[in-house]
From TrEMBL:
Methyltransferase type domain location: 53-145
GO molecular function, one term: S-adenosylmethionine-dependent methyltransferase activity
EC number: 2.1.1.-
Span of the signal peptide: none
Record-linked Pfam families: Methyltransf_11
Presence of the UniProt keyword Lipoprotein in the record: no
Annotated protein name in UniProt: Methyltransferase
One GO term of the biological process aspect: methylation
Keyword Methyltransferase belongs to the record: yes
Gene3D superfamilies listed in its UniProt record: Vaccinia Virus protein VP39
Keyword annotations from UniProtKB, A to Z: Methyltransferase, Transferase
Length: 273
């Protein structure tokens, strides 16, 4: 997940944040999202001997799981612009590559499956990133993508519900100000089919979470990391951020923090003349 386009004007949302706190945030995301990612990858048919590409590999939990599933006869390549979190992890059977997927020589049509989770939403040039992923995928291979929908966020109950909703509006505004799509997950199936891929599975999850839930904690940590960009939208104050943090920690509070849409799609096989 810690992936970025290389151009300064389109930086990854979490570029430059505090490292220890960011690793904690990534580990929390793994705790929440890995079960769903594994479900989608299993649905792709991924198994022994497959060649796999993990784009924006974050702290490496899915890349490590892929390596176990494909076995020694398979291949797993984990790409990230910043591989610091990957290098600190024990990832047997995983080839770690640092760089921008659009500029790396990964060999065309090499992989049986390409997976990315919460990568496209954080990059203004998500179409170019998708082009690079598709170029790396074999004909007949599977593209597995998971993207959030931050427009789904809404407070249900709690003393700080109004602050929670205002910060959610600031999150949407921050993405839009950077030329990014905060509701990209909603459009993911249409984006994939517009590229000529056949949808094989779609999952949509927008859980209603109690304060203290791991997803609430992820978003509390995100608010700490992105305090300045949130405030720069002009939509919220420091008081709102403090209220959002209390909402996320209060067991009496309930809210939807974001939705996630997952897609498994098949690249067309080559036609024979």
């Amino acid at each position: 997940m810690y992936y970025s386009a290389c151009m300064a004007e389109s930086r990854y949302t979490f570029t430059g944040v505090e490292r220890a706190r960011e690793l904690e945030r990534l580990r929390r995301i793994e705790e929440i999202a890995d079960p769903g990612s594994r479900l989608l990858l299993k649905a792709s048919g991924m198994g022994p001997g497959w060649s796999c590409l993990e784009v924006g590999a974050g702290a490496g939990s899915i890349a490590a799981w892929m390596a176990e599933r494909v076995g020694p006869e398979g291949e797993v390549v984990a790409v990230d612009l910043d591989v610091g979190f990957l290098a600190a992890s024990h990832l047997p059977g995983v080839q770690i590559v640092e760089g921008d997927i659009r500029q790396l020589n990964l060999h065309a049509a090499r992989f049986d499956v390409v997976h990315a989770r919460y990568v496209l939403v954080h990059n203004a040039e998500h179409e170019a990133l998708l082009d690079a992923m598709l170029a790396a995928l074999k004909p007949g291979g599977r593209l597995v993508l998971e993207e959030p929908d931050f427009t789904a966020a809404k407070g249900a109950s709690g003393a700080e519900r109004e602050a929670f909703d205002r910060v959610n509006q600031a999150i949407v505004a921050m993405f839009e100000a950077g030329g990014k799509d905060p509701g990209l997950g909603l459009r993911l199936p249409a984006i994939v089919t517009s590229r000529g891929l056949a949808i094989e599975r779609v999952e949509n999850d927008a859980p209603l979470c109690q304060g203290g839930h791991p997803q609430a904690e992820v978003m509390r940590l995100s608010a700490l990391q992105l305090r300045d960009p949130y405030l720069a939208t002009g939509r919220i104050s420091e008081v709102d951020l403090a209220g959002y943090a209390r909402f996320a920690a209060d067991p009496a509070s309930w809210g939807i923090y974001y939705g996630t849409v997952g897609v498994v799609a098949r690249k067309p096989a080559k036609t024979t003349d």
